[in-house]
Write a structure and sequence with these properties.
The complex is a heterodimer of chains A (197) and B (276).
Chain A: H1 3-13, H2 17-39, H3 42-59, H4 69-87, H5 117-135, H6 139-150, H7 155-162, H8 166-183
Chain B: H1 2-15, H2 21-33, H3 35-51, H4 61-74, H5 101-121, H6 123-129, H7 140-165, H8 179-197, H9 206-223, H10 230-243, H11 246-259
The chains are: A mainly alpha (197), B mainly alpha (276).
């Protein structure tokens, strides 16, 4: 575990309330991002991520530091998310109900940092394409891909977080990338792949 | 090519540079000799480059202030990390009201009796079948094999899960938990569960399939628990067992199976005729 994380956890375990606030500030953006990607809804993401922090608040005394703090928090999130999804199977989280106007990743799409309107439009378009491709994945595949690609977790860590075998995670990841490849096929020419196939 | 399938399985690792050096060499050698796999790998790599162009979330900093205010209102007023359910704080004498033994015994008898009643009434079977029942006839040898596999799996899973469920972090010595033993047992049961789930007789029994899935989720928590506090693992496992009433459901399946004559023990839900 990184020394900064270790120090934070130790201070929280010693009962330092201010340290818990620092821990939240340290991890809130990444947790909220994952929650957003899982639930696809701003309110659900807020609720899910807050539930994780409340559970962490109770459970930090159990945390010995062998695992990374973020992996531990992700694991709480996946358990909370899976439990909630199972309980609310009939209603479900709102992630599935996506439309162009109501894209779950919409709050994350920011204006490109350029003054050129064409470049800005193109950059915005790529974000839309990427988000649409992600939404085309099955929830489990999306979770695995997001954790591996954007949160840089190892396959083993993802397996532990999601309660899956490493083999399953690997095959889900492979399927996810192949699906993304199909969803983003129109970039083949831009990537110089068109004439080779 | 059939050998290409083997190399496709290595692609996810290779894309993230997670192959061990000697496997990487074998993989590279295959790509050098197989243009199809080389092309596929190249396209997948480029796909990841496109995905890299996704911008990170950009949440207004003001949002986080409100976020913390909302969260801090929901947190208990005790100090973090040192509050319940930390078992260490509950070891002090008088911290937990002691329940008389007869109350626990009566509760256990009531639970078992309720389970037997529900099982005998066929409540769950009626709920889950819905559609008219059509008898299934399986090869007796297949049924015998299934019975042996199912009995062993359910009995062993019940023993492992009961052991973990009955562990009391407040009073029991963590050393007695022997989590590494629980891990290896869970790994064995995961394999056994997969064999059972893929068995021809099981495939006609959605209730058993669902139960195997639920048991598998809990066992995976144990099997993948290396390196973390065993008490935390136990807490998660106990949550999983309780939330899904797994022990009760195992007992119900066992009761259903015991009710049927030994030579025709078949899944409670009979949906199609496979071997007629």
């Amino acid at each position: 575990m990184e020394s900064h994380e270790q120090g934070l956890v130790q201070r929280v375990q010693e009962g330092d309330s201010e340290a818990f606030k620092e821990l939240v500030e340290y991890s809130q953006a990444r947790l909220f991002q994952l929650a957003m990607e899982l639930t696809g809804d701003w309110d659900d993401a807020e609720e899910l991520s807050q539930q994780v922090f409340i559970k962490a608040y109770h459970g930090l005394s159990h945390f010995r530091g062998e695992a990374k703090l973020m992996s531990w928090l992700y694991r709480i999130m996946m358990n909370t998310y899976i439990d909630a999804s199972r309980k609310e199977r009939t209603r479900g989280w709102r992630m599935r109900a996506t439309t162009d106007e109501d894209s779950p990743l919409e709050p994350f799409v920011t204006e490109a940092h350029t003054d050129n309107p064409e470049a800005r439009t193109a950059a915005h378009q790529i974000q839309d394409h990427i988000n649409e491709a992600l939404q085309a994945l099955a929830p489990q595949q999306r979770s695995v891909f997001i954790m591996r690609h954007y949160h840089d977790l190892s396959l083993k860590e993802i397996a532990r977080i999601m309660g899956l075998s490493v083999g399953t995670v690997k095959s889900q990841l492979f399927r996810a990338i192949r699906r993304l490849q199909k969803e983003l096929h129109f970039y083949r020419a831009e990537l110089g792949l068109e004439e080779q196939s | 090519m059939s050998s290409c399938r083997k190399y496709r399985k290595m692609m996810a690792d290779a894309l993230y540079q997670e192959l061990k050096p000697h496997r990487q060499q074998i993989f590279d050698a295959h790509l050098a000799s197989c243009s199809q796999c080389a092309q596929e790998f190249k396209e997948l790599s480029w796909t990841l480059r496109v995905m890299d162009r996704r911008r990170a979330p950009d949440v207004d900093p003001a949002y986080w202030e409100g976020y913390w205010n909302l969260l801090s209102d929901r947190l208990p007023k005790d100090k973090p990390g040192t509050i319940r359910p930390d078992w260490r704080h509950l070891l002090s004498p008088g911290a937990i009201p002691v329940r008389p033994a007869w109350v626990s015994l009566a509760a256990a008898i009531l639970l078992v009796a309720t389970g037997i009643f529900i099982g005998q009434s066929g409540f769950f079977s009626r709920l889950e079948t819905g559609a008219p029942v059509q008898a299934t006839v399986f090869d007796p040898a297949l049924v015998a094999e299934f019975n042996q596999l199912a009995s062993s799996y359910l009995e062993r899973s019940k023993m492992v899960l009961m052991g973990l469920d009955n562990f009391n972090p407040r009073t029991d010595d963590p050393e007695t938990l022997n989590i590494s033993r629980q891990r290896s047992l869970s790994e064995e049961l995961l394999l056994q569960g997969r064999m059972l789930r893929n068995h021809q007789v099981t495939t006609a029994d959605p209730r058993l399939q669902m139960l195997i899935d639920e048991i598998e989720r809990v066992l995976l928590q144990v099997a993948n628990s290396g390196g973390e506090d065993p008490l935390w693992t136990v807490t998660l496992v106990q949550e999983g067992i309780d939330n899904n009433s797994i022990l009760l459901r195992i007992s119900l399946v066992e009761i259903d199976r015991d009710k049927e004559p030994a030579e025709t023990k078949e899944p409670a839900v009979k949906t199609s005729s496979i071997l007629t």
